């Protein structure tokens, strides 16, 4: 069946790409009273959306890209929701060939921010606006209200922003959407959001593993613990759904469903991107890195099988005299590790913003993550407060509130890391986050020795503590002559 050509200029906004995320975003727009043009490479998907959801609002389907573009009111706004990479480039070029100066192309997929920067340069040269917008919240968020992180030009946000703010999640009347900054800023912030998400999920998994292996608790019992924790400062979407996952029973076996799931975690790449960018910008995002590598390790099933057969444990039995006290220590260690991960993530946004001249408002980023997105959590409000008190805060953990919270959890955190080391339970997030904490607060680090080594084998030079200048030592010469460079 052929889709009839829609009237020209009828739609407020358009969405091309009618998979679940795209169709749900289109439905969200329609639910809020916008006239929405919809299109898909294969018309059958467009027809399916109309058959299933056409009565939910004013939709204007198109079979061809030409009809889709012509149905948009000027200045046109077209959202792309297709697979990242070459498919996105292809759709961008199709749209750009049909659009006029001043029109706006919006990529709401999980594109790498460097691709967005490239695309913005190419599209702006043609007189069009290009917006890279991070959208978090999954399928439900896209339909009911996501957190949206748009980059691009301020001019494009004047046209696009009111619509995005309307359909986003809201907290106390405030939209979980704001203008992030030029070119790739929106997708950069979304990338870091996903990196923090990796860390958040890993540290929750480590807490679960500690209770399972150390206390012999069932999945349902641990689910009860997480449900109680969700009424504390750990209140968050991920803690909430963790309780639900652990309570779910498998209909086939009657066992806890989580016990029937293979212990090999998948990933789509945004965690790895975050690790790569943290290294490029010199930000020690150790929590995000360890969470990403933990997923890699979980998938190395052959290597793990070989290690189980060959490697000794040499662990110790450590008594747990008070089960409830141990669980509370795990909770506080989780909280401490979580604060470190968020601090590292916001430091990466700060450095990325500075290097790219984006001028990202860090407090605003925490504010728009309070609802709609996967890492939505109660304590994000305290992050906004910290950057409101000091927009130039060099380190989130150094804020008075977070310094006080860390002081409260650090004894328990140290006990848990020591316990896990003795008993052989892997807790890469807990332990690396504690090491980062001790490193960032240390008066001296052993990097002086590393600089000496670098100068010895590569003449890389070093700085002295007692006078200005750059120095190199002729290490192999008699008397090891030191020269000012």
Concise account of the structure shown:
With 485 residues, the protein is an alpha/beta fold. It has helices at residues 20-31, 43-53, 65-70, 86-98, 113-124, 138-144, 154-167, 185-215, 219-229, 237-247, 270-280, 286-299, 301-310, 323-356, 362-368, 380-389, 400-423, 428-441, 447-458, and strands at residues 13-16, 36-39, 59-62, 77-80, 104-107, 129-136, 147-150, 170-171, 174-175, 462-463, 470-473, 482-484.
How many helices? The count is 19
The general outline is globular
Structural class: alpha/beta
Strand content: 5-15%
Strands, total number: 12
Taking pLDDT < 50 over at least 5 consecutive residues as the criterion, the unreliable ranges are none
What is the percent of helical residues? 40-55%
Q: Distance between the terminal alpha carbons, to the nearest Å?
A: 77 Å
Radius of gyration, CA atoms, in whole angstroms:
26 Å
Q: Mean pLDDT score, rounded?
A: 95
Strand order of the largest sheet: 3-2-1-4-5-6-7
Biggest sheet layout: 7 strands, mixed
As an assembly, this protein is: single chain
């Amino acid at each position: 069946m052929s889709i009839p050509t829609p009237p020209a200029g009828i739609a407020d906004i358009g969405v091309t790409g009618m998979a679940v995320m795209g169709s749900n975003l289109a439905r969200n727009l329609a639910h809020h009273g916008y006239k929405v043009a919809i299109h898909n490479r294969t018309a059958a998907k467009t027809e399916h959306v109309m058959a299933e959801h056409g009565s939910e609002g004013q939709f204007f389907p198109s079979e061809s890209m030409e009809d889709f573009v012509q149905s948009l009111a000027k200045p046109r706004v077209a959202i792309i929701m297709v697979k990242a990479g070459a498919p996105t480039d292809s759709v961008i070029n199709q749209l750009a060939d049909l659009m006029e100066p001043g029109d706006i192309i919006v990529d709401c997929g999980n594109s790498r921010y460097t691709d967005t920067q490239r695309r913005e340069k190419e599209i702006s040269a043609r007189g069009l606006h290009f917006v890279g917008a991070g959208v978090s919240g999954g399928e439900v968020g896209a339909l009911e209200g996501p957190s949206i992180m748009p980059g691009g030009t301020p001019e494009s946000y004047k046209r696009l922003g009111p619509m995005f703010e309307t359909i986003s999640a809201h907290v106390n009347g405030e939209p979980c959407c704001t203008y992030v900054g030029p070119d790739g800023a929106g997708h950069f912030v979304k990338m870091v959001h996903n990196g923090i998400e990796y860390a958040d999920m890993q540290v929750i998994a480590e807490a679960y593993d500690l209770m399972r292996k150390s206390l012999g608790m069932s999945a349902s019992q641990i689910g009860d613990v997480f449900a109680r924790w969700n009424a504390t400062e750990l209140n968050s979407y991920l803690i909430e759904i963790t309780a639900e996952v652990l309570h779910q029973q498998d209909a086939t076996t009657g066992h806890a469903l989580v016990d029937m799931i293979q212990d090999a975690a998948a990933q789509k790449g945004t965690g790895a991107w975050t690790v790569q960018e943290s290294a490029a910008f010199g930000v020690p995002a150790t929590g995000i890195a360890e969470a990403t590598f933990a997923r890699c390790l979980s998938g190395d099933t052959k290597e793990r099988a070989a290690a189980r057969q060959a490697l000794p444990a040499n662990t110790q039995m450590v008594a747990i005299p008070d089960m409830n006290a141990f669980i509370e220590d795990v909770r506080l260690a989780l909280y401490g590790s979580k604060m470190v991960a968020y601090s590292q993530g916001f430091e990466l946004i700060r450095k990325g913003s500075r290097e790219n001249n984006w001028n990202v408002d860090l407090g605003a980023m925490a504010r728009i993550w309070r609802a709609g997105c996967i890492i939505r959590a109660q304590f994000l409000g305290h992050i906004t407060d910290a950057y409101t008190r000091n927009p130039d805060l060099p380190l989130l953990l150094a804020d008075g509130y977070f310094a006080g919270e860390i002081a409260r959890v650090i004894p328990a955190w140290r006990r848990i890391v020591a316990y896990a080391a003795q008993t052989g339970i892997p807790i890469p997030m807990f332990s690396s986050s504690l090491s980062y904490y001790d490193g960032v607060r240390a008066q001296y680090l052993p990097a002086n020795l590393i600089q000496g080594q670098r100068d010895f084998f590569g003449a890389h030079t070093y700085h002295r503590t007692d006078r200005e200048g750059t120095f190199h030592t002729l290490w192999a010469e008699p008397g090891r002559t030191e020269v000012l460079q």
